[in-house]
Records
---
Amino acid sequence: MDQIISNIGLLFEFPVVNLKILIDGIMIGALFALAAYGLALVWGVMNVKNLAQGDFVIAGGYVAWSLTNIGIHPFLGIPAAFIVMWGIGWITYKLVIKRVIERDLFTSLLATFGLAIMFAQIMNLMFGSDTQSIDLGYDTLHFGPGGFVDVPISKLIGVIVALSLAFGVIIFMKRSRMGQAIRATAQDARAARVLGIDTDKVYAFTFSLNSAICGAAGAIIVMAWVIQPFYGITYSIRAFVIVTAAGLGNLPGVIAAGLGIGAMEQYGAHIFGIGYQQAIAVLLLLIVLFFRLLQQRRKRQVLQ
Amino acid sequence: MAILRPVFYLALLALIIAAPFIFPDFRTQLATLWVFIILSMTWDMTGGQMGYNSLGNILFFGAGMYIAAVVTIALAYDVGEYTNAFGGGTYKFTTTQYFLGMGLGLVFAGLLSAAIAWLMGYLLFQFRGPYFAIGTLGAAIAAGELVSNWEWVGGGQGIALPVYPGDFDVGKLFFYYLFAATGVILFIFLRWLYGTRFAGAINAIRDDEEKAEAMGLHTLRYKQVTWAISAFFVGIVGGISGFQNIHFEPLETAFQTINLGIFMVVCVLLGGKGTLWGPIIGAILFHVIKEVTWNYLLGWQWVALGALIVITVVYFQDGLMGWLARVKPEWFGERVQKKPDLIAEPAE
Amino acid sequence: MGTLKKFGISLLATGALFASAPAAMAEDCDTITLGAAISLTGKYATNGVHAKNGYEYAIQKIKDAGGVKVADKCYNFSTIYYDDESKGDRGATLAERLINQDGVQYMLGPYSSGLTKAIAPVTEQYKIPMVEAEGASRSLFNKGYKYLFAVLSTSEQYLASAITLAAEMAEKEGKDPKSVKVAIAVENDPFSLDIRAGVQEDAKKYGMKIVLDEKLPRDLSDMSAILTKVKLLKPDVLIVSGHSKGAATAVRQIGEQNIDVPMIAVTHCEAADVVGNFGKAANGILCSTQWAETLSYEDDLFGTAAEYEAGFKEAFPEYTNKTVPYQVAQASAAVYVFKDAFERAGTLDKEMVRDAISATDMKTFYGDIRFSEAGNNIAKPMVLRQIQDGKYNVVAPSKFASHKLEWPREAE
């Protein structure tokens, strides 16, 4: 308890800390947002709740890491992870996801949970359970009083790439034929089918796109943070919190929620201690769920 | 048929009692088998009979484990000091303290777990379908994380309970029969319960909650009671497991969300949801497969488990009982008139 | 029947072995089967694999040297491994399985204190001698276990010497050790919490102030929140312990955030290969180690500590560009203790072997091994190494020091 009070005290004693926490939170939040972004897509378009989301992220990280090990520049790892994970997402769709779309929602939840376990373990067997990261060897920027606020350039690059990817997808969804087909399918799959849209193709594309976005996020994470085969669940939980908070089909909202949750988690870690980080994320999920529930209540509906 | 039934149950009971003597080297595995059976049967109460798929029932397992342990310790020593003993200080328990602590601990474990389920149910049963699953999963993860940060109960160290006083082999039999007795009681109870109006009510909730409510059922109350009963048994099993394990850690043993917490769901799906025997058969099937293959896969077992979940869920969701009901409907007597595809698909 | 069963067991064991043994002169020796539950998956998997490799290397080495001589007969070790998934309850079940179903009479330890804590009651009940190499928590040695022996130093010693060093440095500067501020960030598991207890005790002895006391979560990937506080509180010593992932995350972010603390002490640096992964950022960091290849220990089987390292790297090429972690060395030492005890006992009777283990007094490449009544090794000190220009140099205790401590640590 004393520690909590003194931690809060630090926030007021050194106001610059707030800036530092916010920046740290936004940087990690941008990556959470990217993972959540793909989830919002598959959830909204095909009504599949993908619990293997985080494991796609980590898999992308390992793709980039392996390429760096054979001497390819880390930046090329991002498109490489995007492409490789696109393929893996497509295979996953054909083998499993395709068969759960029409089923009840618990089925997709449990099936993707099984996938998550498989993915994590295969990565463990392939790459070992060491924590891995790519050290770009870039400097750290300092500003604020006494250079207190530090922004490692590698993280900055990562965040910029993540955000440009996110906006790229938004534009793609708005402008391209495929994007329109996806949105049409999301609104009414049957009507879309009647109007000549091959919904199976749309689903396959959406799921592969999600997997590819996750892969790119992972490639960024491995450059700026660390990855380990079993870290997937961390990103899955965050993705669920963000999508539940932002709602489906609201891609800019997902980005905002992602940044917000990143910041809230950093504040939580500062005040209560980093040991509570996971608990805070999960409790945020529950709080968001109840908040949504209250909203629905007013409309005399249940959350389902 | 009518004469065969009591003979069958008596033979089964005899087998349960004799099992640890027939397979003396497998006593611990047999005890673990009971854990699986009980957890699967309790999971099916909400998941199969009521259509509420919880991914967080492990919360009561962990809660029971901690409650039973804390009660036992508190009877003899100061809990904070006991859990804080890193280096020095040995704590001895007399036989009376051990059994009194365990008895009282298990009662508290059951009752408090039920109370927790009742309270949590009030909030979580507002959610339907996947949101209920996500919410319960979240609650279980959060509970584990919070307990692992709670220094008074040992934090991440976990708790080391005293060893069974007396002969080691007798101890193993003791735990086996404790689990078995809980399991048999649960079975008799469920067999009775599933024949009452109460079961009709929770089945109605599964099939169409809106209509059930419109018919005047106080659905929330039914849901809470069902979950509380299920949590009561899970809490007791958790408590016994704590004593059997002697030392347990919060995240890896007590609140093992992605292990036991998911295994019980897989067991039920394997055997067949919403039936009395399905969860039992599924648990036996799962446990045997696991014990036979698990140890020789050296790391690949998790891949196999993931694959098993995916295949069961995607291709084989009716489970063994559902499949049997489809190919041999006459075996199921009065269930014949029920359309098989209705068993598998709980209403949204 | 007996021989048949034994044959079956050894057949099984051979199947479980990964390292296919080249033909050696000990070919026609009998087999002594050891059992081990080891973490191949889950949170301890990195170091579980290190331990397993250490066991395997020693077994091979003993085989090449002519096996274990027990009363005129020669034997080879072979080990049945199971994956305990880093979970205590699983470990305990597997220990029973090894003893009951596989008929194992002698056990090697699992990785981590938590797992050893879960398994020790089982081996104790069956009176199966277990020599373990990876469970260091003191809470293992206050239970009165008779069949548990640990070749390593207990965990409160890991970083306590860093506190002593900090006090010495403060005195040198003409400051009171009482003015030293300590920051602690350890993982929330039995091993690291015992390290924290050791550090707290020593800090209290000097009257130092603990300004930060945080616990790291199981799936740690970002500790910038802690490091920000470190920047504010300006401690003189920063202690981090979180197995391999803790070391990796800490070193990376200490480098990125330019954490300027005069003394930073970390466990598991070698296992996480912080020098290979993060280069300059690792410089100046103190690493506690059970063993170092530069120490002057030696024995007949493995040669000197340096020869052990070279031999091991040859057998396991994946370690070529890393420092061999001490987790490997102590695992090998545990097997060596068994060999020595069997030869002295002159029988395969497990009570006699247990007594022989208890009477162990040997000098090995890993250090001296002599067990206390409680079963922990009391003959070997912990050493503290500092990463200086990418090299691990021993700086404390002064008896073993090959280099001078660079203090205060310069942030890059």
Note: The interface with chain B takes residues 16, 40-43, 81-83, 85-89, 92-94, 96-97, 100-101, 114, 117-118, 121, 125-126, 137-139, 142-144, 156, 187-190, 192-194, 197, 215, 217-218 of chain C (CB under 8 Å).
---
Amino acid sequence: MNMKLTTLALGAVMAAGPVMADLVFPSLSYRTGPYAAGGIPFADGYADYFTLVNERDGGIGGVKARLIECETGYNTEKGVECYESTKGEGALVYQPLSTGITYQLIPKTAADGIPLHTMGYGRTSAANGKVFGNVFNYPANYWDGASGIINYLLDENGGDLKGKKIALVYHNSAYGKEPIRTLEELAVKHGFELTALPVDHPGQEQKSQWLQIRRERPDFVMMWGWGVMNQVAIQEAANIRFPMENFIGVWWSGAEHDVLSAGAAADGYKAVTFHNVGRDFPVFDDMQKYVVDAGKAAGAGDQIGNVLYNRGMYAAMLAVEAAKTAQEIHGTADITPAMMRDGMEALEMPEARMASLGMPYFGPSFNVSCENHGGPGLVGVTQWDAEAKTWSLVADFQQTDGEVIKPLIEADSASYASENNIEPRCN
Amino acid sequence: MFYREAGDFKVSYEQDSQTFPIKFDRYRYYLVLLIAFLVIPFTINDYWASAILLPFLIYSIAAIGLNILVGYAGQVSLGTGGFMAVGAYACYKLMTAFPEVSMFVHVVLAGGITALVCVLFGLPSLRIKGFYLAVATLAAQFFLVWVFNRVPWFYNYSASGQINAPERDVFGIIITGPNAPAWATYLFCLVFLTICAIVARNLTRGTVGRSWMAIRDMDIAAEIIGVNPLKAKLTAFAVSGFFIGISGALFFALYLGAVEVGEAFGITKSFQVLFMVIIGGLGSIFGSFAGAAFLVLLPVILKVVGVDVLGWPTDIVAHFQLVIVGALIVLFLIVEPHGLAQLWRVAKEKLRLWPFPH
């Protein structure tokens, strides 16, 4: 009530004054706690891209973007505090980078009419735009990741995984449990044997899981880890001399800091991805010129070009492009969260558009539609070279198994719709 | 000048044994209740409700519950997080199984279920004491979290293992889910806190409370004068579990809305509530409030001052929070080992003599 009055008053002041409001993008980051190693580069990339857009282009459609950073520490209670304290500022889109916080924000953002973009995390069935009107998880989700890994293994093994043993080492939380359902279906379809090994938060203790892997000798190991768990798992795999090229992580388990600590032993470790790696893109020249050299880089400024920095930058780029789309649709530069949602739903990201932004082939080309908020689910594979200390793309963005994933998304979103009495949209 | 008995005549036993025998204290108490019930609900907004007042109210209930066990009965417990999880999952199962029943009933039943579980884990307290009991309750913490992660029945077989609070109402007013108005969730928690605090206060002043304190101070002596240790210890566990269960249910259903057991009810939660009790003051109901307020408000205040006022980077502020809160805890324990409640008692004593201390 009070809040509404303040916003009304604020709105009146803004309408009266000639100065345009900023476009507000909250960044619920975590630069502290056990998951900070992953949170810092993402937050830096996210912040730097908005700085670049402000400095180089003078904002989005002439309106400056304003980033509000709020520290969550990957903790849901602090996440709530951050959400409540930033939403009154006119936040256009939330990207919490935490599956736990996402689950909390899905109903809250729906009630407040603010879009939520969970790129490659969160609730997978949010890809069904008919049920989840303002949640987006393009360009890929966990189930695409799971299917992408299995497709890659199929390619490597001549299209046959019958009788193979595949182990999944996962973070024992909503995040880690998410792919199991798809993997179980895929195990039936392709005839491999799946062993799921949970690792409890924060993941420093994995001796028993790797002992089991040593005993059962699976052909391949998949990992759904985050934070310190990744480093420990890769070190443990090296300790039991598990062949690294048979060890594949999801995109949250494939950054520099995950593999560096294991040194040369990590050579050949793989991870799936939904965007390109390295800093061999024209956009990084602009980044150097307008942001780094101007002393405006976020954080310590030492993360540029890292896998997760690129992901944060990619997330910011998609947000900026969606905001531009929204400005075109509604013919106003000063967009509201509801307009932003329309922009995200109408987002088109063809190759030419990425190239014009200085990011050619940075991610898969995709279109978002009212029904499909998840994009096409194209997934590539990267591999770590311990000698050169670089990740490189070893398999192109490829189609995942929609035949298996689609029915699962339908079923899960249908149960959410019935629990919450949601009428399907897009008819 | 303040807190004087002078001129405050008691003419009946009821008046003599009331909770706040001093007139000034009693009016202050009525004023607090008046503001809490009649002023705040009309001025509250989403931010104040979800970021400050709800966690304060809910943690206060948990702290009162733990204070009964640790402060009054002297049984050290590190299982608070696990017991809160029992309350949350009991509430979730009840909410989904009986959608038409009022939330009041669900929350109270969740408290009752937690009381039973708490008594079960309290049984070892009859044989073991002190640090050894702390280890036994620590086992409860880990066991309960493991069970809720492991057995899919508790989270209704959802793929992610999360529990989500569906929309439920009390007398037609929605109080869970995202569409619940801030004042309704606030009032719902406030009613529970008020009832819990009054019940706890009166229990601790009566026979039960005296037997708890006798056990705490010296269990052998208590047994010799006729206090039944079995009854005293298990009632302490039951009452404490009841309150902690209520706080767990409210924590899940009204405050967070979606919960993952390992993250929300881990060992850190147990320590957080224990710190509230220790900082607030062992064996004091007011101390439970003070401790909860201290640990809920301080990080928010530091964040507002650091990030919004001074404009520092968020990570520096987050690190400073840890340092400052930690330092304050150490400082408090050195300067005032009996907690904030003792500071309050001393302040009252001083005010009583002021302005003529001699």
Note: Residues 26-266 of chain B form one domain.
